[in-house]
Amino acid sequence: MDPHALLLFLGVDVLLVCTPGPDWLYIVARGLGQGRRAALTAVTGVCAGYAVHTLLSAAGLAAALRAVPALLPALRLAGAGYLTLLAVGMLLALRRGGTGRAVTAAGPQPARTVLRQSLLTALLNPKGLLLYLSLVPQFVAPDAALPVGAQVAALGAVNVLCCAAVYSAVALGAARLGGRIGSTPRAARRLSAVSAVLLLAVAGVTAAA
Q1: Which of 88, 100, 169, 200 has the greatest count of CB atoms below 10 A from its CB?
Q2: Sign of CA dihedral 173, 167, 207, 119
Q3: Cα separations (Å) of 14 from 18, 92, 145, 183?
């Protein structure tokens, strides 16, 4: 495909990825409440979700969503509901973690659980789909030597790499901040509660998108 179009897409995509949004809030919530490993695992899951979006879009999902507009709002509400369930689960874990004057934080989740939850969060994020519905087609040339599906896959791969780089920096920053201000059990418990509230905020943003 045209290198100039690819570079232009890269510039626009970097700006979009660097703009704080639901992905940022989700990864920050993981970093603050569960540390660096969970935050980076969340980044891996989110990027894997967008890689799936890329493959599906290259296979024609974006065109199908245009043909059935009702699918996108349904997906948006499903994503908001899933994030709400995650937040409620974190709050219940905090409640079970101690009673009375106990101040222990919720225990860390296994990496496999964080990866699965993050993958589903990305798959149900309408912002990722909107990227393929609105932005990617503007950089696809139907008359180019490279097939349309391959062009979509190349642009999607650029987006996944941008997300991996930017979100990893966000994850490390959030984990470092969480480690500094959550060094005591009481502070760690409060950070876990803040993480749950952030997830609820992501659910609200997703539902209103």
Answers
A1: 200
A2: negative
A3: 6, 37, 26, 34
Phi, psi of 50, rounded to the nearest 5 degrees: -70, -30
Integer Cα distance of 128 and 125 in angstroms: 6
Q: Which two tokens stand for residue 182?
A: 């959550």
CA distance 18 to 139: 20
Q: Considering all CA atoms of the chain, what is the largest pairwise distance in Å, rounded to the nearest integer?
A: 68
Tens digits of residue pLDDT in 78-105: 767 777 887 787 777 667 654 443 333 4
Query: Exposed (0-12), middle (13-18) or buried (19+): which is 107, by Cβ within 10 Å?
Result: exposed
pTM of the predicted model as reported, rounded to 2 decimal places: 0.72
Tokens of 63: 């065109």
